[in-house]
Amino acid sequence: MTQMPDPSRPLRIGTRGSALALAQAHETRDRLMAAHGLPAEAFAIVPIKTTGDRVLDRPLSAIGGKGLFTKEIEDALAADQIDIAVHSMKDMPVQQPEGMVIDCYLPREDVRDAFVSLQFASIADLPQGAVVGSSSLRRRAQLAHRRPDLQLVEFRGNVQTRLKKLEDGVAVASFLAMAGLSRLDMIGVARGPIQPDEMLPAVAQGAIGIERRRADDGIAALLAAIHDRPTGERLAAERSFLARLDGSCQTPIAGLAELRGDRLTLRGEILSPDGARVYAGTREGGIADGAALGADLAQELLSRAGPDFLKG
Ligand SMILES: NCc1[nH]cc(CCC(=O)O)c1CC(=O)O
Is the CB of 91 under 6 A from ligand 1? Predict the structure, then answer.
């Protein structure tokens, strides 16, 4: 039986407090409103500060561990302080806490990275030795592999903070997810998207997942109305790839599943943090085989890279 919220008992939507996270929470609410003919007052957006939001003066790898952007939100879900949690799936560990499940995904946005610069139009235009800002281990390793001359500097913070750093000359270029810029209605900031052949995106980039308590069947029925099946099929392959790698958060990993008709193609790569070593591969098969294809591709790359490659 669907558990319909109403203004006297609104559905509490947990989210990080960044502008992007709030935009994603509002998109989730709006989709539920439209799907069930409910007013905005039947929902409450509940911002929650996470460790990743609090600690801004160090690289994420220095504060270690997975779940930097998710743990406090999952704690609130477990404590019945919220009813659902909205996450950027690229920040989501592959394992959810006991009693929690993610089985609802919104339609995936543009998966690509965006090249952002006030002076240059593309990576190819960057002069030798240019200073480029990114705190993403994946982006840093991919760039170091393609352009070992570039000087990479840490570049943490939300979208607005990173744009300010470019204006202040901390770096001459950086990267943001097209999905984030699009959801913030800031796509004009992008000089252009970077094709996956040039920089394969992070696993689950562009995807929003809704986490709930596994026992809440009424919430499950409510969410089923806004679940996007192709996004779920793609993420099953990508997150299976990530799960089999079981990379530390020190490990640059990229992966992208795409659907054509009833076929799924998965591309994946693992890199050494300095970009000196890259192992990449592809799998193609039936959509229902996505999880198996992901695990198989991960196994191949691990075999080629050797047992210590992912130790971080
Ligand atoms: N923690 C960074 C993060 N997590 C999700 C997004 C963008 C939205 C998405 O990929 O769904 C971003 C910003 C970025 O990479 O530019």
Answer: yes
Please tell me the distance between residue 115's alpha carbon and the centre of ligand 1 in angstroms: 14
* pTM for the structure as a whole: 0.95
Determine whether the shortest distance from the Cβ of 144 to ligand 1 is under 6 A.
no
Quick one: fold of 11-106+207-227? D-Maltodextrin-Binding Protein; domain 2 (3.40.190)
Domain 239-305 fold:
Double Stranded RNA Binding Domain (3.30.160)
- At position 24, the amino acid (one-letter code) is Q
Boundaries of CATH 3.40.190.10 in the chain? Answer: 11-106+207-227, 113-194
Q: What residues of the chain score a pLDDT lower than 70? A: 1-3, 65, 247-250, 312
Task: Please tell me the predicted confidence (pLDDT) of residue 248.
Answer: 59
Strands 192-194 and 113-116: antiparallel
Q: CB atoms < 10 A from the CB of 168, how many?
A: 8
Under CATH, what is the fold of the domain 113-194? Answer: D-Maltodextrin-Binding Protein; domain 2 (3.40.190)
Residue ranges of the chain that CATH labels 3.30.160.40: 239-305
pLDDT, residue 24, reads: 98
Question: Does ligand 1 have an atom closer than 6 angstroms to the CB of 135?
Answer: no
What number does the ligand 1 atom closest to the CA of 183 have? Answer: 8
Question: Chain centroid to CA 2: how far?
Answer: 29
Give the model's pLDDT for residue 1: 59
94-113 in b/e form (b: 16+ CB < 10 A) is bebeeeeebebbbebbbbbb
Strand partners, 175: 115
Amino acid identity of residue 139, one-letter, is: R
Check if 91 is active-site: yes
Q: Which tens digit of pLDDT belongs to each residue from 202-229? A: 999 999 999 999 999 999 999 999 999 9
* Amino acid 51: pLDDT: 86
Contacts of 71 (CB under 8 A, 6+ apart): 50, 51
Residue pair 183/30 in contact by the 8 Å Cβ criterion: no
